[in-house]
Design brief:
It comes from Pararhodobacter zhoushanensis. Pfam families: MFS_1. Its main location: membrane. The protein is 73% helix and 0% strand. The protein is built from 20 helices and no strands. The longest helix is centred in the last third of the chain and has 40 residues. The radius of gyration is 24 Å and the shape is globular. The N terminus and C terminus are likely disordered.
């Protein structure tokens, strides 16, 4: 017998309240991927860490979460979804409290590892649970609820983190999880039924190889910019470990009797194409979000609160689209909905390539609303299509792989845009400065003090050149994200719309 939440149509007495509890836990976990970023400078002095050392507060969480995510399916089978939820929520909430009272860097890194380990299962477990407690005709609305939590977390995180850090102190970035975690824990305990378990051998070797591959990849992505990417032996060590671990893992799974991950689930075309697509969406969505706060604060001079207000309409657009797409699912070909959403997202990136240093807030607001509205149309129907034909017995493992690939894509995307931004700022600065020589008519007319060696004028001109070089670099990154998004569009039409009902049988009453 498979675990209940790897089976569809689990009957619950209070589906709405259970969904609220599940989404509270999910939002809490997703928020923590971004909420601590803005608090890092404030942690440095308090924890006695250097600028380079404090980044391990982020790295430790990301790596621990990535390694633990694939464990979700096995843990569901062995513990049951209800018990696993309770353990994960309690552990994440408790480790958040420990992070909030940490007194040194070593303690903080340890507690962030604990946060990552407990939180890793929350997102995939929430997705599989929501799929299982809703009948097929409500699947679109159910995915709309899940998608809202997944996509609003990264949008709200930096703003909430900045407000808490400025007004209450960096410790409240972690302590804010306590009331949310307690409510989620009580909700799951009260409304989620007990679920049966099954014996499943733990393939330690397979898990170790997959963990090695994922952990090394995440370390490379997080540390690459700081150590100089391919110019550093550290990067090549990570690359070698990641490739070796993945190769051994695949060979082992193909030959083992009970592998850690059953590779047969990748034979489902919808699922495989869904993983490829969500990788690209993770790459563009989170990297685009990572670019906006530094652009608004460092380049345009917006304070943290104003930055949050300027980015808030993006979340409003997402919420509106979730409501609309939930009602359209089942009535309109989901591939058309995804295509419409992709077109809006591409249009938003195109608007963002027109940003300049003299603009007001409205281009940011309108492009944000358009992108948020488009992403709602992308995430909900595509998540539904990805699992529409996947056998129910693979659902727990499938949702964990879905979350893992999305997180790897976001990590890669952030690394790409960070690296491109740094390199393009330097390149653009050099090119713009080369046009300010003694033979430039504009220099003679507008800034003659530059030719006379006036240091004040030279500093002012250099500041303007740096500002323009940075804006061009941001625009280049937005164009790159546009290209990535456009390249992913053909994947949509490789999916099958007609679901295989045999893949999602209903449980007979005796097994609920």
């Amino acid at each position: 017998m498979t675990a209940a939440l790897s089976r569809p149509n689990l009957e619950v007495a209070h589906r709405g309240w259970l969904t609220v509890a599940i989404m509270l836990a999910t939002i809490m976990q997703v928020l923590d991927t971004t909420i601590a970023n803005v608090a890092l400078p404030h942690m440095t002095a308090s924890l006695g860490a250097s600028q380079e050392e404090i980044t391990w507060v982020l790295t430790s969480y990301i790596v621990a979460s990535a390694i633990a995510t694939p464990l979700t399916g096995w843990l569901v089978d062995r513990l049951g979804a209800r018990l696993l939820f309770l353990i994960a929520i309690a552990g994440f909430t408790g480790s958040s409290l420990l992070c909030g009272i940490a007194t040194g860097l070593e303690e903080m890194v340890l507690f962030r590892v604990m946060q990552g380990l407990f939180g890793a299962v929350l997102s995939p477990l929430a997705q599989s649970t929501i799929l299982d407690i809703n009948p097929r005709e409500r699947m679109g609305q159910a995915m709309a609820v899940y998608g809202a939590g997944i996509m609003l977390g990264p949008i709200v995180g930096p703003t909430l983190g900045g407000w808490l850090t400025e007004d209450f102190g960096w410790r409240y970035v972690f302590l804010v999880n306590l009331p949310i975690g307690i409510m989620a824990l009580l909700g799951v305990a009260a409304f989620m039924p007990r679920t049966p378990t099954r014996t499943r051998r733990f393939d330690f070797f397979g898990f170790a190889m997959l963990g090695l591959a994922i952990g090394a990849l995440q370390l490379m992505l997080d540390r690459g910019q700081a150590v100089g990417w391919l110019g550093s032996p550290e990067t090549w060590i990570y690359i070698g470990l990641s490739i070796s671990g993945l190769w051994v893992f695949i060979v082992h799974c193909l030959t083992a009797d009970e592998p850690f991950i059953d590779l047969r689930m990748f034979a489902d075309r919808n699922f495989s194409m869904g993983l490829l697509f969500i990788f690209v969406i993770g790459l563009t969505l989170f990297s685009g979000l990572a670019l906006l706060p530094p652009l608004l604060q460092n380049l345009l001079g917006y304070p943290v609160i104003t930055t949050g207000i300027a980015m808030a309409p993006r979340g409003i657009g997402t919420m509106l689209s979730m409501i609309v797409v939930g009602r359209l699912m089942g009535k309109v070909d989901p591939r058309l909905l995804v295509t419409f959403g992709m077109a809006l997202t591409i249009g938003a990136f195109w608007m963002m390539t027109g940003y300049d240093t003299m603009m007001d807030v409205w281009p940011i607001v309108w492009s944000g609303v358009m992108q948020g509205f488009g992403l709602g149309f992308v995430f909900v129907p595509f998540s539904t299509l990805t699992f529409a034909t996947l056998s129910a017995k693979y659902r727990s493992d499938g949702t964990s792989m879905f979350a893992l690939v999305r997180n790897v894509g976001s990590g890669l995307g952030i690394s790409i845009v960070t690296s491109v931004l740094a390199r393009m700022i330097a390149t653009n600065h050099e090119e713009l400065a080369s046009r300010l020589g003694a033979d430039s008519q504009a220099v003679h007319q507008l800034v003659p003090g530059l030719l006379q060696g006036n240091l004040t004028v030279a500093a002012q001109v250099d500041g303007l050149v740096t500002q323009q070089a940075a804006m061009i670099a941001y625009v280049d990154n937005f164009l790159l994200m546009l290209i990535f998004t456009a390249c992913a569009l053909p994947i949509v039409f490789l999916l099958r719309v007609n679901t295989d009902k045999a893949a999602a049988p209903s449980l007979p009453p005796s097994e609920h």
